[in-house]
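Audit log entry. Action: structure prediction of a protein-small molecule complex. Ligand: AH0. The ligand was supplied as SMILES and no pocket hint was given, so placement is left entirely to the predictor. Protonation state taken as written. Sequence taken verbatim from the request; no trimming, no tag removal. Recorded inputs:
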Amino acid sequence: MALYIGLMSGTSLDGVDGALADFSDAATRTLAAAYVPFPTALRAELMALQAAGANELEREALAANQIAIHYAQCVAELLRQGGVAAGAVSAVAAHGQTIRHRPELGFTRQTNNPALLAELCGIDVVADFRSRDVAAGGQGAPLVPAFHQALFGVAGLRRVVANIGGIANISVLHGDGRVDGFDTGPGNVLMDSWIARHQGREYDADGAWAASGTVVPALLAALLAEPYFALPAPKSTGRDLFHMDWLDARLSAFPQLAPADVQATLTRLTAVTLARAVAQYGGGADALYICGGGAYNGTLLRDLAAALDGKVAVASTEALGVAPNRVEALAFAWLGYRFNARLAGNLPAVTGAAGPRVLGALYPR
Ligand SMILES: Nc1ncnc2c1ncn2[C@@H]1O[C@H](COP(=O)(O)OP(=O)(O)OP(=O)(O)O)[C@@H](O)[C@H]1O
Ligand SMILES: CC(=O)N[C@H]1[C@@H]2OC[C@@H](O2)[C@@H](O)[C@@H]1O[C@H](C)C(=O)O
C-alpha cells in the first residue's frame, strides 16, 4: 500500500476537499473523499487577506492555525471513512490557502500551519508545493496538468481537461506525452461574488439565476478586452487580478444592467475564455472533460458546448471514473506521493520553470 491524503482548499475559499488514495502499482485508487466547510468568519478573513490590510502578519498566522485545524478534521474523517490508521498513511499533502499569487515578483503564498497539522494528525505533512517552481522561474501553477496526464492521458488520444474552480485552468493532453496547461481566467470567482452581493447566496446553483438573465454582448466584449486573456502561456492568475474591483471598474460603463443579465454575462465569460483556450491549444481534441465545482453549473456547461461550436464533445470527468469534485484533492495526494519518491511534480512546459523540480517541504510527524 502507498497511502496518501491530499487536501485542497482553492480560490473559492469555501472549505477543504480531501481524498485518501492508494498509489500502489502506479495506479490511483480512491479510498475515501471528504469535504470540511470553513466557518463563515474564517471565509471572511481569508477573503480579507487576499488584499493588503492592517496587522496582516498576525492575522495570517491565526488564519493559518484555523486552516490546519480544519485540515486535521478532514484527515480524521478520511481515516474514519477509509478504515485506515494514521500510521498507515505515508503523508498528508496539504495545499494551504492561496492568499497572494505573484510569481512575477518571485513569490506565491499558500497559508497554512503544516507544523500544527503534523502535530494534530501524527502523519508526515508535505506542504508549500508551489514555491520551488516559482524559485525555478515558473508560475507555480497550474500544477494539476501533470496529474491529469498521469490519470487521464491515453496514447494516441488528444484530450482536454478543464478544472473550473474559482479560477479555471485547462490541461491539453496531446496523446504523445506532450502536455500544455494554463489558467484561462475566472472560473466561478466572479459569479460567486456577484450572487453573494445581490442575493446573499454562495453560488448560483446549477446556473439557474444566470439562465434567467440575458447575456449583454457589449459588457462581454468589455470583459474580454482584459489583456490577461490574450497573453501566451505559461500564465497563471488568481484573485489578485479577478476580483470585484476589476468587475466594478468595467461595469461602471453599464450602470443600468439587471443583475441577472450580469450573471448571465459572467457565466458566458467563463465559457468563452475556456472555449477559446481549447480551440487555440487543443484543436482536434477528442473530448473536453470538466472537473471542479463548475461541472455542477448546467448553464455554464451549455454555454461552453455552444462556444465550442460542436467541435469538441463536453463531458464531466465522471465519464472517466472520477467525480469532478475529487480531482484536485487527488492531485495533491499524488503530488505528496511524488515528493516522497523525490520525483518532479511540475511540468516545465506548463509552468515555465527552468526544469523539473521536486515540489514541497516536509514536516515529519
Ligand atoms: N451545484 C452547483 N451549481 C453551480 N455551481 C457550483 C455548484 N457546486 C459548486 N459550484 C461552484 O464551484 C465552486 C467550488 O469549486 P471548487 O471546489 O472546484 O473550487 P476551488 O477548489 O475553491 O477552486 P480552484 O480550483 O480555483 O482552486 C463554488 O464556489 C461554486 O461556484
Ligand atoms: C496559485 C493558486 O492557488 N492557483 C490555483 C488556482 O485555482 C485554479 C487555478 O488557480 C490553478 O492555477 C491553481 O490550482 C490548481 C489546483 C493547480 O495548481 O493546478
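Audit: result stored. The chain has a mean pLDDT of 97. The first strand starts at residue 3 and ends at 8.
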